[in-house]
UniProtKB/TrEMBL annotation:
Species this protein is from: Paenibacillus rhizophilus
Record flagged with keyword Metal-binding: no
Transmembrane regions listed in the UniProt entry: 51-70, 76-96, 117-137, 157-187
Classification via InterPro entries: AgrB
Keywords annotated in UniProt: Cell membrane, Hydrolase, Membrane, Protease, Quorum sensing, Transmembrane, Transmembrane helix
Any GO MF annotation of the entry: peptidase activity
Protein name stated in the entry: Accessory regulator AgrB
Any one GO biological process: proteolysis
Length: 193
């Protein structure tokens, strides 16, 4: 039964990704027609718009699923926690928008449900996340072109965020930080979806 619902969700997400890519092309084309001289190429605008539209898809889908499953607040907290830590720590990117959307939506909607089972392990989870951030962060997007001189500052901020949960004590935040910390590990010969 779970497999049936997963298949439906994946099919819906595939359709949404295709729609988002089509929409981003149409919007980029319309912008280019409206101002051909003062805009970037259609491809550049489509790429940027597809990132924005797919991010909106992840947020909206996660919030709807969180609301339907009674974990709306936990889903908001998960989205915020992962986004905040990812902003300073970076992390691996999946190879396609579809894979990213599926992984992100599943992560943000499952964490609030799992967190209650991990209350007794929150200190361990925080500790592991802190060690991973100390060793591996940051792992910025290669397209971000951030100066290397910012990396130590980004590492410290990422570690402070994880440290803050030792005082907050939230299993949702702890699990969200742990999942995000796994994305900064440098795996040898890593192949992701």
């Amino acid at each position: 039964m779970v497999s049936f619902y997963m298949d439906i969700c994946i099919s819906l997400i595939e359709g949404i990704v295709i729609t988002m890519n089509t929409l981003s092309y149409k919007v980029a084309f319309a912008i280019k027609q409206a101002n051909p001289e003062g805009t970037s190429s259609i491809e550049v605008m489509q790429y940027s718009l597809s990132i924005l539209f797919n991010t909106a898809c992840i947020i909206i889908s996660s919030l709807v699923i969180g609301w339907l499953t009674g974990q709306w607040k936990g889903t908001i907290l998960t989205l915020f926690s992962i986004a905040l830590l990812r902003f300073v720590s970076g992390g691996v990117h999946l190879k396609s928008a579809k894979a990213c959307n599926i992984a992100s939506i599943l992560t943000c909607t499952i964490i609030p449900h799992l967190s209650s089972f991990l209350d007794n392990y929150i200190l361990l989870i925080n500790g592991v996340s802190l060690v991973i951030m100390a060793i591996s962060a940051p792992k910025p997007d290669k397209n971000a072109q951030l100066p290397i001189k910012w990396f130590p500052f980004m590492k410290v901020i990422a570690m402070l965020l994880v440290l803050s949960n030792f005082f907050i004590g939230s299993s949702v935040i702890g699990l969200a930080f742990f999942v995000q910390s796994l994305t900064v590990i440098y795996w040898k010969r890593r192949v992701l979806l």
